[in-house]
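Recall the central idea of this unit: under ordinary conditions, the amino acid sequence of a chain determines the structure it adopts. In this exercise we apply that idea directly, starting from the sequence alone.
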Amino acid sequence: MTATTLWPVLDHAHTALRSVLADLTPADLARPTPCTEWTVTQVLQHAAGDQRAYAAAITGHGGPTENPFDPSGTLDGTPTALVEPALVASADAFATVAADAPTPTPLPHGALPAPVAAGAAALDAAVHAWDVAVATGRPSPLDDALAADLLPVARAIVEPLRQYGAYAAALDPAPGDGPSAELLRYLGRDPRWTP
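Accordingly, the structure predicted from this sequence is:
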């Protein structure tokens, strides 16, 4: 089931995250990721937990069942069974948000303008889709169009989050960077990362 919202950037990011779930093997789930302390399983647990946290901030219920920043690494069921309900909950919650409404978020920022809040949830889903893709040798689902939409959101919310360890220090831009590479470097990720 694919829920859609008034927020194309969120729908695009959710599609990116869904695209990396199919056919993951047990060996894939144990692979290291650009999130240096986490395996693919832990990144998926974190991503699912964050989407549930955005949904719960809006609806007041249905938050993550474990701390998204301390994922267990133990998966009961399939990656899709873990992530899909979280994406649906997030999309359903954002479908209730008016375009001009301040929107509660789980971020230290608190409520944000609705487009920024939806973009923040999208940023989380999209970057973790990239993490899983590169960790498992798949093509990146973080295309330049999505990255270009996410860059302004990243620049609006990421700096205060670095102090909490949510993002590493930004990397220097490189000649020829397109929007995807620019976004990844801004988030402290090396676009050429390999396991």
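The longest strand covers residues 102-103.
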